[in-house]
Amino acid sequence: KDVEKEREPHVYLSKEEVKEKIQSYNSSVTDKLKMTLNANGIYTGFIKVQMELCRPITVQSSQSQGRCAHSNNETAFYLPDGCVNTLHISSTNTVREVIEALLKKFLVADNPAKFALYKRCHKEDQVYTCKLSDREHPLYLRLVAGPRTEMLSFVLREHETGEVMWEAFSIPELQNFLRILDKEENEQLQSLKKRYAAYRDKLEEALGGVWKPG
């Protein structure tokens, strides 16, 4: 179970320190996703972001897989669990820009303000998660932590329920969410009825065996 951890302060690195860290980083890379240092001191590289979204997203497309509900040319659906996306970014890109790039890649029409980027760290058999501020730079965090995702990984989530600005959702979005919830409620109800019907049949069968004349 994740536990919250205080945000670590950003440590300024000189150009030479950045160069050394990038060389060390690239020597440890196993998936060919290396970093590149440009002459102006800006470096580029890749980050992987795991999508852990509990609520459906709205995309501007009429074709989607999975459980969905349609409204004009928009579709609300759930992303598959464990979906991971790889982004090529620079050291100047902020958390907010990374979130916007992820949503653009998935053609998501939802307001980026509904989402937050987290870093997940493993230390001493504990898993720590920390919500990143909009102004932090994910590629810097990747560089400092090294390429191993078990040391540091990025996760996209919705804001906590208490933090959600529901007025930011459009009427079609809310209507799509309600349709999906109604469908899921009906599916759960039917499943529950079948389960209890099976229990009842077994009980009646057992009772019949007990009271059957010998």
From TrEMBL:
Entry keyword Metal-binding: yes
Coiled-coil stretches noted in the UniProt entry, renumbered to this chain: 182-209
Domain SARAH: 163-210
UniProt GO BP: signal transduction
InterPro entries for this protein: RA_dom (IPR000159), RASSF1-6 (IPR033614), SARAH_dom (IPR011524), Ubiquitin-like_domsf (IPR029071)
Principal location listed in the UniProt entry: cytoplasm
Subcellular localization: Cytoplasm, Cytoskeleton
Entry annotated with the keyword Metal-binding: yes
SMART domains: RA
Name of the featured protein: RASF3 protein
Organism this protein belongs to: Corythaixoides concolor
A cellular component term, taken from the record's GO annotations: microtubule
Keywords, sorted A to Z: Coiled coil, Cytoplasm, Cytoskeleton, Metal-binding, Microtubule, Phosphoprotein, Zinc, Zinc-finger
Domain Ras-associating as annotated: residue spans: 71-161
Gene3D superfamilies found in the cross-reference section: 1.20.5.110, Phosphatidylinositol 3-kinase Catalytic Subunit, Chain A, domain 1 (3.10.20.90)
GO molecular function: zinc ion binding
Native organism taxonomy: Eukaryota, Metazoa, Chordata, Craniata, Vertebrata
Highest taxon above the source species: Eukaryota
